[in-house]
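User: Here's a protein and a ligand (zinc ion). What would the complex look like?
Assistant: Let me lay out the input and then the predicted complex.
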Amino acid sequence: MRHVDPAIMIDMIEQRASKSERESYEQHLTDCRRCAAEYDSWWTFLSGLCPSSLTDAPTKLINECIAIYRKPEPLPSRFQRASLLFDSFLQPLAVAGLRGTPAESRQVVLHTQVFDVHVKVSGKESDRRIMAQLLPLQPDTIVDGAQIQLHIPGCPAQVTRSNELGQFTFSGVPNGPLSFFIELSSSGSIVQFSVQGG
Ligand SMILES: [Zn+2]
């Protein structure tokens, strides 16, 4: 089963998706627990980011949410979202890189309640290498052996595990937005985040 791309979920949440697009994905969101959880996390995340748009259309958003979840379930508390702390693509240096020497790699730092994630993406567009590290916020958090899934729309998911330093790598990564699911083996916490425009 093909899952719904996070970019499409965001379009649906921000009311940019067409009616036919919306209908075709809503059926999947009803049937697929994983996409439903991801959609819910985006919804929570985006409504947290945009309180002004919430006051514009709260009833519509809430009704939409109820319509999608015929059996509403709270998100498991172990499911967490990440926030972006730094992205070298969004820095002036990256713009300078576009004009002259191409930027060698992209560096992204994300923050969660459990750990920070440093992600470095390098290589050609269609054959990228990702090197990343989980940096725990508490010294007793174990980042060894976390299961990391990497999803790119239209491609089979890649799965790996972190080493004792929380480091992990993916190679031969095709073009497309990167969606990560990270599950800590010790606590079972699941963190999901996406790197767009990669
Ligand atoms: Zn799905």
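Summary: Residues 6-49 form one domain.
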